[in-house]
Amino acid sequence: TQLLEQSPQFLSIQEGENLTVYCNSSSVFSSLQWYRQEPGEGPVLLVTVVTGGEVKKLKRLTFQFGDARKDSSLHITAAQPGDTGLYLCAGVLSVASGYALNFGKGTSLLVTP
Amino acid sequence: DTEVTQTPKHLVMGMTNKKSLKCEQHMGHRAMYWYKQKAKKPPELMFVYSYEKLSINESVPSRFSPECPNSSLLNLHLHALQPEDSALYLCASSQLPGHGQFFGPGTRLTVL
């Protein structure tokens, strides 16, 4: 079941531009994680946000968790070619048998020099 | 050591073969996961092990059989797979269930 909707699905920008990726759901999550994946490799954890309204910064990346813990955004300032990759948001749900991670479909970002 | 390792990196097998995928982590994480990822799709959760016990099985066909021999190792035994099972199989671990996950590089599986 796809609980998380990511937008845009694809994004092609030039170096130096800013961009925002959105991750939306009608479900409330215990926490939400953002990953970046490059072709042929496993996803790499960028950040975990836990508290509603939380904002975390990782160099040029700013992550925000919605107040109701249903949505999140990733903003990249002055994008660089090294930012190219698939950005995945993943919501953590508490289920009877433990915790399940539900991935969005991803945003494929291409940054050209 | 902050790495999750997976072997083999690539695997080609016939539909009658039996093979195993291996995953290892030495970060002291108590949760380990198997995912299946098809091209241009997000990872799909297959199994979750928490404290070496299977806690989540996402209705995966019985031709996939997970095993957790100890807290550092996770195996995925494959038998009588179908061509549609061809995918990237990712292993991940986290300190505790629900925490941020560290992924291995994956095993690229092709079923002929």
Query: What is the percent of helical residues of chain A?
Result: under 10%
The beta-strand count of chain A equals: 11
Overall radius of gyration of chain B: 13 Å
Mean pLDDT of chain A: 93
Percent in helix of chain B: under 10%
Low-pLDDT segments, ≥5 res of chain A = none
Number of helices of chain A: 0
Number of helices of chain B: 0
The gross shape of chain B turns out to be globular
What is the count of β-strands of chain B? 11
Q: Structural class of the secondary structure composition of chain A?
A: mainly beta
Strand content of chain B: over 45%
Write down the Rg of chain A. Answer: 14 Å
Largest sheet of chain A: 6 strands, mixed
Largest interface: A-B, 26 and 26 residues
Reported for the largest beta sheet of chain B, the result is: 7 strands, mixed
Shape of chain A: globular
Series of secondary-structure elements of chain B, N-terminal to C-terminal: EEEEEEEEEEE
* Order of helix and strand elements from N to C terminus of chain A: EEEEEEEEEEE
Oligomeric form: heterodimer
The average pLDDT score of chain B comes to: 93
Descriptive terms for the model:
heterodimer, A: 113 residues, mainly beta, B: 112 residues, seven-stranded mixed β-sheet, 11 strands, 57% strand
Structure description:
The complex is a heterodimer of chains A (113) and B (112). Chain A has 113 residues and is mostly beta strands. Chain A has strands at residues 5-7, 10-14, 19-24, 31-37, 44-49, 55-58, 61-65, 71-76, 85-95, 98-103, 107-112. Chain A is globular and about 45 Å long. Chain B is mostly beta strands and 112 residues long. In chain B, strands 2, 4, 5, 6, 9, 10 and 11 form a seven-stranded mixed β-sheet that branches. Chain B has a four-stranded antiparallel β-sheet with strand order 1-3-8-7, with no helix packed on it. In chain B, strand 5 and strand 6 form a beta hairpin. The radius of gyration of chain B is 13 Å and the shape is globular. Chain B starts with a strand and ends with a strand. The mean pLDDT of chain B is 93. Chains A and B meet through strand 4, strand 5, strand 9 and strand 10 of A and strand 5, strand 9 and strand 10 of B.
